[in-house]
């Protein structure tokens, strides 16, 4: 595995072994399927909105620990948030992933997602970390069109 801070590695492995919001809900406003062919990661994400609030988020997937932990962390962060806040969190995380290892993650905004900061040093793995977040973005656009 990559050289990540031990504490961060524990957070990632904990989400990988005990994922949040895993298991697809029957009811949803949008369902998306995203893949990361370079690593073999796949996720399906179901999203439901109540007005502009994230009412439900559930997912299923297979792949590396980074991709699966990241979608678990993302799902916990976005659940219950207004889409405007969700977008800010997402932008914050994307900036962190583009920071080439020098970004200073804001734990108040990103919570457990700060554990993924070290991934930004490994260009080949950034797509793993972003997979679930891009799926969320896609699903939120589709769900808003529907509502
Ligand atoms: Zn991966």
Describe the SSE topology.
Elements: H1 6-17, E1 30-36, E2 41-50, E3 53-62, H2 65-78, H3 83-97, H4 107-110, H5 123-146
Antiparallel strand pairs: 1-2, 2-3
Helix pairs in contact: 1-2, 2-5, 3-5
The chain binds zinc ion.
Characterization of the model:
There is one protein chain. The protein is α+β, with helices and mostly antiparallel strands. The chain has one domain (2-146): Sufe protein. Chain: A (Alpha-Beta Complex), CATH 3.90.1010.10. Helices cover 47% and strands 18% of the residues. The chain has five helices and three strands; from the N terminus they run H-E-E-E-H-H-H-H. The protein has helices at 6-17, 65-78, 83-97, 107-110, 123-146, and strands spanning 30-36, 41-50, 53-62. The protein has a three-stranded antiparallel beta sheet with strand order 1-2-3, with helices on one face. Strand 2 (41-50) and strand 3 form a beta hairpin. Helix 3 runs antiparallel to helix 5 (123-146). The longest helix has 24 residues, at 123-146. The protein is globular, with a radius of gyration of 14 Å. The model has no long low-confidence stretch (mean pLDDT 94). Zinc ion binds at residues 36, 39, 41, 63-64, 66-67, 128. Residues 8-128 form the NIF system FeS cluster assembly NifU N-terminal domain. One of its GO terms (molecular function) is iron ion binding.
């Amino acid at each position: 595995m990559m050289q990540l801070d031990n504490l961060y590695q524990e957070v990632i492995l904990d989400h990988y072994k005990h994922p949040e919001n895993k298991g697809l809900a029957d009811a949803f406003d949008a369902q998306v399927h995203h893949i990361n062919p370079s690593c073999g990661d796949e996720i399906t994400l179901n999203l439901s909105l109540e007005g502009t609030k994230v009412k439900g988020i559930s997912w299923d997937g297979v792949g590396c620990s980074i991709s699966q932990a990241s979608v678990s962390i993302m799902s916990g962060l976005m659940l219950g948030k207004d889409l405007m806040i969700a977008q800010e969190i997402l932008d914050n995380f994307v900036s962190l992933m583009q920071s080439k290892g020098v970004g200073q993650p804001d734990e108040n905004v990103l919570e457990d997602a700060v554990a993924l900061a070290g991934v930004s040093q490994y260009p080949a793995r950034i797509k793993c970390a972003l997979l679930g977040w891009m799926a969320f973005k896609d699903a939120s656009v589709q769900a808003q069109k529907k509502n």
